[in-house]
Known about the structure:
By secondary structure, the chain is of the alpha/beta class. 49% of the residues lie in helices and 10% in strands. The protein folds into four domains: 2-72 and 104-157, no CATH class; 160-225, no CATH class; 252-411, 3-Layer(aba) Sandwich (Rossmann fold); 415-456. It has helices at residues 2-11, 22-41, 53-72, 75-86, 93-96, 128-141, 144-151, 160-168, 211-225, 233-247, 262-273, 289-304, 326-335, 361-368, 377-385, 401-404, 415-427, 430-433, 436-456; strands spanning 106-110, 116-120, 178-179, 186-187, 252-256, 277-282, 313-318, 337-338, 341-342, 347-353, 407-411. GO terms for molecular function: ATP hydrolysis activity; ubiquitin-protein transferase activity. This is AAA+ ATPase domain-containing protein. Pfam families: AAA_7.
Amino acid sequence: MTCSRLIQAIFLPNKDADYITWTQLSIFVAVFHRLFTGFSSNVYFGAESLPEPKLRMDLAQALIQSSNLFTSLSVENVRKQQRSVTSDEPMKFSDAIVQWDKIQPFTLAFTASNDPLFIYKKPTDVPQALVKYFKLYYNACGQNLVGLSTMFPDYNNLSHSDFFVKSASLSYKYFNKSICPKCFGQYDFKQVECNKCASKDLLIRPKSFGSKDIEIFQRDIATRLQDDYVLTSDNFIKMLLIYLRVQCGIPVLIMGETGCGKTSLIKFLCQKVLDQELEIFRIHAGVTADIIIKKMNAYIKTVQAYTGEEKRLWIFFDEFNTTTNIGLLKEIMCERTLLGEPLPNKMVFLGACNPRRQKTAQLIQNDNAHVGLRKNRYEMQKLLWAGTDQRLLYTVVPMPETMLEYIWDYGYLNETTELDYIKTMLLRCKYLSNFKVIYNLMIRLLLQSQNHFRQIEDASS
Length: 461
């Protein structure tokens, strides 16, 4: 009873009693357990390192607040939105889902060496108790503001290379391993060739285990990876939030518009940063329960063959809310069972879903216009037979209540973030970026093109 009262005191405030569930409480406990375990074992936060006992309590309170973030970010809004569509009650998109640009998250993830990586959008989001502590810590070490700016940098001023060096600390892959420059797989430090690539590329590695040589090596890797994926402040923060959920054993279920970068971000984190195995299961209306069970049994056999303690199989269910068998997917991802049988611990479950959102009046008018390509009557009848709603922007089915508890709104790119992505991607075009006038013109053209499609189609375009 004492434990229950203590948890209620820190969990219940500022929550809508109509939406509190056991699942939310279990998420809160899982996140807080991971954060407090890292906090207790980290050298920065040890009792001997903190000059004031009250400061340590203030830091613990900051962890509690960040744990609450995972149970209040978008669950209530997604549930209200889903019910409003079902009941024909009008609800604006901006009111239905908490948009990424309207929240100010603060939490932290712990790296492979148990060092903290702080997650925030702006340095002003960092709790003052934490800033005060690190000022005292770095002053005692004689580092003053140099150390503080390193610990709490303004992410908007960092480059792709800077972000990669930080994300590389999530594993030991780019510290003491040989790396294939083509597939970026990791091998023993002394191995010479890649076993996976047909070209048998020669492996690359740091010159030494010194911190300077390791950073040079990591920045070289960052440059090589930039051709496939570009890290920005936006996707770096989202990547850390995904990583923290995985650390806590929570299924990562992301809701976001098509094309907002969900799949590419997960592939980069899983394969390039962590070097884990990734299986992408693309879900659609034709995926039956038998297909899902057959796939899962194949994944179980794969995992059973793993020998390494740290090896995990990441299973990503893309567009999981497009099948009527979503109840089976809920059992797999949320309950970690398949037909009642427990699934191996070495499986990590992730999923992406489209928002259940009605079309705008303009889109409905365009659908009914006798212009361009249209779905024929037979295809429309099949959709109706499957129980879908033609008024929805995406062909999706309602999600089970339990699943909604784990939904995290990924949102869609706002104009500022989109501009950053365009600039960074165009910088990869060496000859274009050398001509500043043409480079800036291309940026404006692409941005105006995106805005044009959003005006005539929808906010998600």
